[in-house]
TrEMBL record:
Pfam families found in the cross-reference section: AMP-binding
GO MF annotation: an example: medium-chain fatty acid-CoA ligase activity
UniProt GO BP: fatty acid metabolic process
Residue ranges the record marks as coiled coil: none
Domain AMP-dependent synthetase/ligase: 83-238
Lineage summary: Eukaryota, Viridiplantae, Streptophyta, Embryophyta, Tracheophyta
UniProt protein name: 2-succinylbenzoateCoA ligaseic/peroxisomal-like isoform X5
Keyword Ligase: yes
InterPro entries given in the database record: AMP-binding_CS (IPR020845), AMP-dep_synth/lig_dom (IPR000873)
Keywords assigned by UniProt, alphabetized: Ligase
Length: 290
């Protein structure tokens, strides 16, 4: 189960009560959770581990275990019985894409692998890529992209959290070739790079995957101007039915824009439903028909 520092403790607690984890790992950004957990009834939780600086005030004042402590007490010869379980749970992601409280979605090993392999096949990720992590690894988009890059042996550039100045600095210094965005991230990148009416082009970037909402014509034009060598893909997904994706280039006069679908393996779960795409009108939304 993945969580990040923007979640409130109550949201995290609700997620833990739902999924019943036995281990919680936090860093300094969530250090206050430790004291809150002492008085909270998350009965399934047996271990709470901290990753971060040993010199932090939190480490000095709290009786908390570290990853090193855990490894020290578990480093012994253990035999494992390996078995093939592709449809068993790999992760639980929480989505706010529906009304009401966030829903916990169980993602199977095969679903996670297939989506990651689809990204490799469609976007053309390779060992020559330098990938900037702009989205949280607790989110399916960031996680499956990270796994896709791991599959091909690409280089990963990690930043603690997205800050546009830090991201642009990483793009320049690390010669980043690939990244994923959402419309707000793209708007920030465009805004920062437009200095005194002049553009600072990012020539190293060749592949951009945008999700979380469509880019309208003006942001697309700005993105193409900012990243003149990049192919821009737009991704659509339904986390609760996640399964696989496909792509078809669009000729809209705006440059190298492609559309990528995480279509959710919908025929497997809902065999009487088909997805139709209006290519003639370049509609940004698919429709479901019984």
């Amino acid at each position: 189960m993945g969580m990040h520092q923007l979640q409130s403790f109550e949201e995290a607690k609700s997620a833990m009560l739902m999924t019943k984890p036995v281990m919680l790992v936090t860093d300094e950004s969530c250090s206050f959770w430790y004291s809150e957990l002492q008085s909270s009834a998350v009965t399934s939780l047996r271990w709470h581990f901290f990753i971060g600086s040993f010199s932090s005030g939190f480490m000095k004042t709290s009786n908390v275990s570290t990853a090193e402590t855990f490894l020290k007490h578990t480093m012994r010869s253990i035999s494992f019985d390996h078995f093939w379980a592709p449809e068993d749970a790999a992760i639980v992601c929480f989505t706010s894409g529906t009304t009401g409280k966030p829903k916990g979605v169980i993602i199977s090993h095969s679903a996670l692998m297939v989506q990651s392999m689809a990204k490799v096949a469609i976007l053309g990720y390779s060992e020559d890529d330098v990938y900037l992590h702009t989205t949280p690894l607790c989110h399916i988009g960031g996680l499956s992209s990270a796994l896709a890059m791991l599959m091909v042996g690409a280089c990963h550039v990690l930043i603690p959290k997205f800050k546009v100045a830090v991201a642009v600095d990483a793009i320049e210094k690390q010669c980043v070739t690939s990244l994923i965005t959402v419309p707000a991230i793209m708007a920030d990148l465009v805004s920062l790079s437009r200095v005194n009416g002049k553009w600072e082009e990012r020539q190293s970037v060749k592949k951009i995957l945008n999700g979380g909402g469509s880019l309208s014509d003006e942001p697309i034009k700005s993105a193409i101007k900012l990243f003149p060598r990049a192919k821009i893909f737009s991704a659509y997904a339904m986390l609760s039915l996640l399964k696989h994706g496909w792509d078809r280039p669009m000729q809209n006069g705006l440059g190298s824009l492609h559309f990528f679908f995480c279509s959710s393996y919908i025929h497997y779960y809902l065999p009487n439903i088909s997805i139709y795409w209006n290519y003639r009108s370049h509609s940004y939304f698919s429709s479901l028909f019984l």
